[in-house]
What we know:
Helix 6 links the parallel strand 6 and strand 7.
Amino acid sequence: MTIGRRILFVLMLATLAHIAPPAKAATKLTFLYTPVNSWVGIFVAKDQGYLEKHGLDIDLTIAQNGSVIAAALVADSAQIGGPTPTVLLQANEQGLDLIVIAGTATYPLNNLSGIIARKDGAIKETKDLLGKKVGVPGLGGLIDVLAKKWVQAKGVDYHKVDWIELTLAQMGDGLKSGIADAVAITDPFYSRIMDSGIGVNVGDYGSVIPTGTVPIVYTSTRGWATKNAAAVAAFRASLKEAEIFIRDPANLPATKAILAKYTMLPPQAAATLSIPDRLDVDPKPESLSFWITVSREQGLIKGNPDPASLIAP
């Protein structure tokens, strides 16, 4: 090889050494959720690029209702979903084997919730609910379970209340039309009904929940979490970076705008959504214990799972 060719060869090697290896493709996932403020962590992580930074390309998709999320995870049409713990427990009782990969806000929450009765009705206190129609967004769901627990704690047999299903968006009209005598509801719909003057507050079902309990959880199938441990770790890391952004007072206007963007609620409704005080990204067994106890009490599950077994490493 001539000197010129040797020099050219060395230069080519040097050039190749400085060429960066091809970037690793981001892990593509779908997150299926209902539009509530507890998901502010992933909303911010998506909007601010933290998911992308950690190698995740997650499509955020709103579910028609929370009851479809468990089935979507098992069918792999979504890899991460946002069911309530009561739905997760019932799904596992049926053999679906879902697992919590990250937590969200914890009680006590700073958003308004409660049972609202028609203003012109006869319901003034808990005992007046006996024999009346009370709307809940889903039988066996979180609000249904909590409303029944609250009624029971007030010394009233919840079995003697006529619980009916109404979506949160239908509850105001349900009160107006008389379809429901009362509704168990949370913000932003709670504030809209109270501001309209058509309802009166009977009590807050959220008062029965122990501090530190999580209302809704990031969930996957156990099989997916086991095979994708690196993605789970990256997901949690993204949420923790989002938490730092959220807690900076200077970012409050941006956080509220992001919350409105991803809940896709009308501006007036989105304005009532609060930013959770705490986001407990690393899930803890004690955050699920209450849901196991109350689900057993109300006959939603027969088993008594160890809460630690429901959390991905």
